[in-house]
Design a protein that fits this description.
CATH topology of the largest domain: Aspartate Aminotransferase, domain 2
Bound molecules: 4'-deoxy-4'-aminopyridoxal-5'-phosphate, glutamine
Keywords: Aminotransferase, Pyridoxal phosphate, Transferase
Helix content: 25-40%
CATH superfamily of the largest domain: Type I PLP-dependent aspartate aminotransferase-like (Major domain)
Strand content: 5-15%
Order of helices and strands: HEHHEHEHEHEHEHEHEHHHHEEHEEEH
Pfam family, one: Aminotran_1_2
Distance between the termini: 54 Å
Structural class: alpha/beta
InterPro entries: Aminotransferase_I/II_large (IPR004839), Kynurenine-oxoglutarate_AT (IPR051326), PyrdxlP-dep_Trfase (IPR015424), PyrdxlP-dep_Trfase_major (IPR015421), PyrdxlP-dep_Trfase_small (IPR015422)
Protein name: Methionine aminotransferase
Cofactor: pyridoxal 5'-phosphate
């Protein structure tokens, strides 16, 4: 007899990012689906990795992350968000933000707990909650603006609510949290036992003069939060899968209990390279304006097509409506665009537990101008 697994994720298929990137490759389509830049990362940074290896930094680094890298991150956080976090007690380097989120959920959740998740939601959140025996209570963001609906959120909080998950700049919409959202979060969490998980991987990818409001800059919110980041997004190297989690000492202590028996530590040479490279503030501070140019370049090109943009204030992404073009479901439209027109996108319906159809697709504009031009040339045939 061959044993069978009783699935812990019986409803899960393959993530939409893999489905669409595989389809793009099969049809030789221009891939504006999965979020990754198609231009070269900074050569100075990749050279620092080679140097670290050549210098012999090839053994385990400290389980919480290379101390000088944690120091550099702590300094950056103090400078940007005014929070004097301890490199020793409050920062852990992780193999990507996805892992950091999973570990944070595992640290805090007990079976039967509820976590409030705003939809559309990045696709790793709900499975991570469910794998930890908890329930994701989904709340739709306001259609069009993708802003938090305060009344719906208040109504969803029950004695079982353990945490609220936020993500700004937001994937897939590019919406960003504003001061009124922070005031609301303050209001609903103060004098409660609620945790916050704040996914801030796109912290520097923010446009139009907006300022990233990090949970790290609000002590009364930070005291109950796990905050996650990804170097892949900051330095155009998503394949590096290196990130970090920041949380107050008592929370981080539990996070590390799990981390030490899972990844234990992260690829070392990259940590040496990042520790040196983080000293160059301009590299991350100028990222938003560089990416804003790409968003605008793409948007101007897309104005020739029948697609209608929804606002994007941050991230790699902009959502476009195809209501003027077709009545198809989003997944069907995304597949047809790939197969017949050679352009790959992500159906926003994939960011809901129970797909919601709004005739919208997510485009990744973090690409070379020539890639964006070629994609729009193809879309003009629609
Ligand atoms: N959160 C969001 C909102 C994302 O878009 C991504 C995508 N990369 C991640 C987390 C995961 O980051 P990492 O690749 O570092 O795991
Ligand atoms: N975060 C990326 C996106 O939203 C994809 C990461 C992944 O493929 N898991 O497209």
């Amino acid at each position: 007899m061959i044993p069978t697994i009783q699935s812990k994720l019986p409803q899960a298929g393959t993530t939409i990012f893999t489905i669409m990137s595989t389809l793009a490759a099969e049809h030789n389509a221009i891939n504006l689906g999965q979020g990754f830049p198609d231009f070269a990362m900074n050569a100075a940074l990749s050279e620092l990795v080679s140097k670290a290896m050549a210098d012999g930094h090839n053994q385990y680094v400290h389980m919480n992350g290379l101390p000088v890298l944690r120091e550099a991150i702590a300094q950056k956080i103090k400078q940007l968000y005014g929070n004097p976090v301890s490199a020793n007690d409050e920062i852990t380097i992780t193999p990507g933000a996805t892992y950091a989120l999973y570990t944070a959920f595992t640290a805090m959740l007990q079976p039967g707990d509820e976590v409030i998740v705003f939809e559309p939601a990045y696709d790793c959140y709900i499975p991570a909650i469910e794998l930890n025996g908890a329930k994701a209570v989904t709340i739709p963001l306001t259609p069009g603006t993708y802003k938090i609906d305060q009344a719906l959120t208040r109504a969803a909080i029950t004695p079982k609510t353990k945490a609220i998950l936020i993500n700004s700049p937001h994937n897939p919409s590019g919406a960003v949290l504003e001061e009124d959202d922070i005031a609301f979060l303050t209001d609903i969490t103060s004098n409660t036992n609620l945790f916050i998980i704040s996914d801030e991987v796109y912290e520097h990818l923010i446009f139009d003069g907006k300022k990233h409001l990090s949970i790290l800059q609000y002590p009364h919110l930070y005291e109950r939060s796990f905050v996650t980041f990804s170097f892949g997004k900051v330095y155009n190297c998503t394949g590096w899968k290196t990130g970090y989690c920041v949380a107050p000492p008592a929370l981080m202590k539990e996070f590390r209990k799990i981390h030490q028996f899972n990844a234990f530590t992260v690829f070392g040479p990259v940590q040496y390279a990042l520790a040196a490279f983080l000293k160059d503030e301009a590299e991350y501070l100028e990222l938003g304006s560089r990416l804003q140019q790409k968003r605008d370049y793409f948007k101007n090109l897309m104005a020739q097509t029948k697609f209608e943009p929804l606002p994007s204030y941050g991230s790699y992404f902009q959502i476009y409506s195809y209501a003027n073009i077709s009545d198809e479901k989003e997944y069907d439209m995304a597949v047809r665009l790939t197969k017949n027109y050679g352009v790959t996108t992500i159906p926003v319906s994939a960011f809901y537990k129970n797909p919601v159809e709004n005739k919208v697709l997510r485009f990744c504009f973090s690409k070379k101008e020539s890639t964006l031009e070629a994609a729009v040339e193809r879309l003009l045939k629609l």
